[in-house]
Specification:
This protein has 6 helices and 8 strands, in the order H-H-H-E-E-H-E-E-E-H-E-H-E-E. By secondary structure, the chain is α+β, with helices and mostly antiparallel strands.
């Protein structure tokens, strides 16, 4: 029987359980076709509700990491994908994990009409209102990241009245809106005048840019563009050789 590890204490419980199950799969302790502990065992181990455990397992299944069968239970997929260089990360947990004090501010907020050119990056095939947000994330009071975000209000109608007073949009979405597919596009650019002012860096400073799109069953949920000063962000991908 596979042993369940400890939770890391960061973020929503379903995400903590997801990470606890994902770690031994990625590092090879749980081999392809190995059975994942039953939902009841996971519930008892982590003191979680069935819905919470089901959400964690469902997220892994949506990415092809595990396979769920009615009679066989949940097993590690034949070849667990190592495709994501980046997971959908929680910046609040990330800052706190590094010992910092997290803070954020909503710099701009607007509702866009379906035909507004600014809504184009979301890639909606049919017209739908879009919520646009500009957010600055901070660690110990210093600017860490600028986030531009578009949210499909047809898919996430509750976002229109959400004040984002205590949690940034990224953390709120992670906790409330399930997704099935995600895409990251990574690039680098020099900070323009506005970006430099928001990040309190010099114009032209090298910045890392990550664009993220998420979908649920083919429906766009959100598009976001994150800009970080190059010296404040590091991307790490760990891979296993097919040759062993």
């Amino acid at each position: 029987m596979q042993q369940l590890g400890d939770l890391d204490g960061h973020g929503p419980l379903w995400q903590q359980i997801r990470r606890a199950l994902l770690e031994p799969i990625r590092d090879g302790r749980w081999k392809p076709h190995a059975k994942i502990p039953k939902e009841l065992e996971i519930m008892e181990r982590y003191g979680a509700a069935r819905m919470t455990v089901n959400r964690a397992l469902g997220s892994l299944a949506a990415e092809g990491i595990v396979t769920r069968k009615k009679r066989a239970g949940t097993v590690v997929a034949d070849r667990p994908p190592e495709r994501p260089l980046l997971e959908i990360w929680d910046i609040v947990a990330e800052v706190e994990r590094l010992g910092g004090t997290y803070g954020f501010e909503i710099l701009d907020r607007a509702r866009l009409e379906p035909d507004d050119p600014e809504a184009a990056p979301l890639g909606l095939e049919e017209g739908a209102p879009v919520l646009r947000l500009l957010v600055r994330h901070m660690s110990d009071g210093a600017a860490l990241q600028i986030e531009e975000r578009l949210i499909n209000l047809a898919a996430v109608p509750e976002a229109v009245d959400e004040p984002f007073a205590t949690r940034p949009p990224s953390a709120w979405l992670l906790a409330h809106v399930p997704w099935s597919d995600a895409e990251h596009v990574i690039s680098a650019e020099g900070a323009g005048r506005e970006t430099a002012a928001l990040l309190t860096v010099k114009t032209g400073t090298a910045c890392l840019v990550v664009e993220r799109r998420t979908w649920r069953d083919g429906v766009p949920i959100t598009w976001a563009r994150f800009v970080h000063p190059g010296d404040k962000r590091r991307l790490v991908g760990r891979f296993r050789s097919d040759a062993g």
